[in-house]
What does this fold into?
Amino acid sequence: MLVRLAAAVVFLMLAAAPAAAGDGPMPAVQQLGSGVLAPDGTTRFVAVPSALSTVLQHVEVQGGAVMRAVDLRGAWGVPTIAYGVAGEGLSANGRTLVLGDVAREYPRRTSGFLVLSAKSMRVLRTISLRGDFAYDAVSPDARWLYLIQHVDPTSTERYVVRRYDVDHGRLVPGRIADRTQKSWVMAGYPQARATSADGRWVYTLYANPGGYPFVHALDTTRGVAHCVGLPWTGDQSGFYNMRVSLRNGGHTLAAHWLSGRPWLTIDTRSWRVSPDRRAGFPWLAIGAAAAAVVAGAGAFLLRRRRRRGEELEGSSESCFASPRVT
Amino acid sequence: MSRRLGLVLGVLGMLAVVPVALGAYPTPFAAQGGQGVMSNDGALRYVASKAGEGTVVNAISTRDGSLLKSKAVDGSFGVPMITYKGPAAGMLRDGSAFVLQSIGYQPETSFQLIGTSDLAARTAFTLKGTFAFDALSPDGSKLYLIQHTSKDDLQHYVVRMYDLNAHKLMPGKIADKTQKGWVMQGFPASRATTADGRWVYTLYWNPNGYPFVHALDTVRGVAHCIGIAAPVQNGAVLEYTMRVQGPKLVIRTRGGSVYRVIDRQTWRVSKAL
It folds into this structure.
């Protein structure tokens, strides 16, 4: 019954989504839409559904001409980790593309992936895994494919990260976890992602209802991960409006709202979390101007800002129990 | 016979270097992949792609290449190409629909009129014989078709008219009544259309004779053929371009220099503007 209810919810979410997606509460793959952009930004790969097959198209960004198209038997899509974020699956060297199969149920008994040459669009490897898997990331040279394995048939929130050896065609035993925080339970929904310029590090922001949101930092070359908890105690339902981006040559990961309003930064070497003090959009100036015009409203805004600052500075020191902000 | 085979192979060879998936035949033909046909505002292009035994038609944003709409179509269809180098044709002047044509030279040819709003078929019909899209009247009521007299002879053809309102192929051919002995043969090299969509001019390369321009009045359904001098290298015509410039029709070489100018009222041919 729960599964049926979940399926109905998924169906409604898909119906509202701008592009047809094909999996659980978090989309696993995308058909139509913007697909995945090539590293040089000049072309994109888009999966198009057909009656019994999927047409993978390599499209020019400027002008929209179809440079090449291949017909793939079955229902496949470009992996995507969350609604409203760009498709994924193309290795950082631009040579290899991973597609995921379109799921019709949750949990799936088997999950499929295709590994293709981005140049010839020829299928290099067909992957079929027992269990419910979704794409997570691919290493820059496409040697390693990282997958989300859903481990609880009643909840898509709980998962482990697995590593697939593309060259040898096998799922590597064990999970990819933060060795320094062994008790960390992977639970949550991906909301936003940033990838280092060389494609090696993949940072995923997760909303974690009932717990703290966190960033999962994955080194796709070495296959190690680090979890960084974030100080947020309220409702996380608005987290779909959160984005992460890299700056300072990849040494700083900034979590900010879609509007550009800053929130936090994470030092990607020390994993230290700090309030983002960068001069972004002039919220303070606007607040002050508003205060000058409407004193009462201005005072109210200032009080809110002060209270929010205290909330950040007052967080716990423990990374397990609650995140640390310095 | 060997000469004709060589010619066809030559044209096929030229098609082979076109960097998109085509329904590789001498023009006109139906293409899959590539540029497709553009919406009138230039915001979208409609491209057909092979999907198993069928076809998917996509609406693609020209701004960022994202795929906005898609529809599966039974059968193997493509967007009509007038010349081997494009662009494609078949969009109604009001932008509400475009023509798809079956792929390949077959004893029967199918056409569909696809609505741009939902990519659903507005009209579909099949004709006995080897046909190809040629032009549309501005109001979308008349579809002009190239009918090859034999699927083994792709040079010779007649122009026919299909009434999209009455859903029937009109008897007789659209020919130059003033030059009844003119034999329609050749391969389309370039296309120009007046701003109102009424006059459609097609420059033909004629391997066995002079190149000519086929001027088609798509409203009245009448045509005029204007022969022009062949360049030293006859096949160079395939690289020529043609443009309507006020009362003139200007044909330029690949390098951009004026080759011939045709007065659109008197059909007089001159060498300079």
